[in-house]
Write a structure and sequence with these properties.
- The protein has 242 residues and is an alpha/beta fold.
- It is 29% helix and 33% strand.
- The protein is built from seven helices and eleven strands.
- It has a seven-stranded mixed beta sheet with strand order 3-2-1-4-5-11-10, sandwiched between helices. A four-stranded antiparallel beta sheet has the order 6-7-8-9.
- Strand 7 and strand 8 form a beta hairpin.
- Helix 2 crosses helix 3.
- The protein is globular and about 50 Å long.
Length: 242
């Protein structure tokens, strides 16, 4: 569960349009202007798509992912200004900091139960300097409550069958592929914008922006699957571990 197979990387990661990556990176650069937000921690960085793009713009990026193969690929392609580490999202105490910003992109927040998700935000808070920013790119629960069921399509020359279902606030996605390949299963706790803002506030963050499409002018909506939220660590906030 929540560990991507090589087939997933082949079909969904390596086929991403570079134009999409550039649009997303432009948004990050607008929300994290240099030189104030130069030092960035990219959690669940995968193969380094965003970390590489940010480093080429002059940022210093530490990418963290628990998938050792993804981390190795990220290192092989890394430009100057990138460092990649293998670590679990729940245990980043050993990652050198503090940072000016933390990014958690492409629905990489919400894997765990409510208490553990809150603990992840606590870890992020500890890694950010006061006034540092957190950017989340996550699924909108309202969209997936309306869009469940099965669909079949082809990607990269392979047949793909996708089954999405909600169980309370959690989304389960099962992917099967042709030719006897191992499938993928993902499970996340999804949030509404209001819930995420409240959760982040409880961990010492203030929400600056909620939008969709990596476009500050488009408000988050249950009609669109993804949303982006920008938070700032409150200047004088200190938190207990609970």
């Amino acid at each position: 569960m929540n560990s991507s197979t090589p087939t997933w990387f082949e079909l969904f990661m390596r086929t991403l349009d570079p134009v999409q990556t550039e649009r997303e990176t432009e948004f990050l650069a607008r929300q994290l202007p240099l030189p104030e937000y130069r030092h960035i921690l990219d959690l669940c960085c995968g193969t380094g798509r965003h970390a590489h793009a940010l480093a080429r713009r002059g940022y210093e990026v530490v990418g963290v992912d628990r998938d050792g193969l993804a981390v190795e690929e990220a290192r092989m392609q890394a430009p100057t200004g990138c460092l990649f580490l293998q670590a679990d999202l729940r245990d980043i105490g050993g990652v050198p900091g503090p940072f000016d910003a933390v990014t958690i992109l492409w629905q990489s927040f919400g894997y765990f139960d409510d208490d553990t998700n809150a603990a992840v935000l606590h870890e992020v808070h500890a890694k950010l300097r006061p006034g540092g920013r957190l950017i989340l790119d996550v699924y909108h629960r309202g969209f997936f409550e309306r869009h469940q069921g099965e669909q079949a399509f082809e990607r990269g020359g392979l047949p793909v069958r996708e089954h999405k279902r909600m169980d309370g606030p959690r989304l389960r996605v099962d992917l099967t592929y042709g030719e006897g390949r191992t499938g993928d299963s993902f499970d996340w706790r999804l949030y509404t914008p209001e819930e995420l803002r409240d959760l982040a506030r409880s961990r010492g963050f203030t929400c600056l922006l909620t939008c969709t499409g990596f476009d500050e002018e488009r408000p988050a909506s249950a009609d669109v699957p993804r949303m982006q939220l920008v938070f700032v660590r409150e200047e004088n906030s200190t938190l207990s571990p609970t």
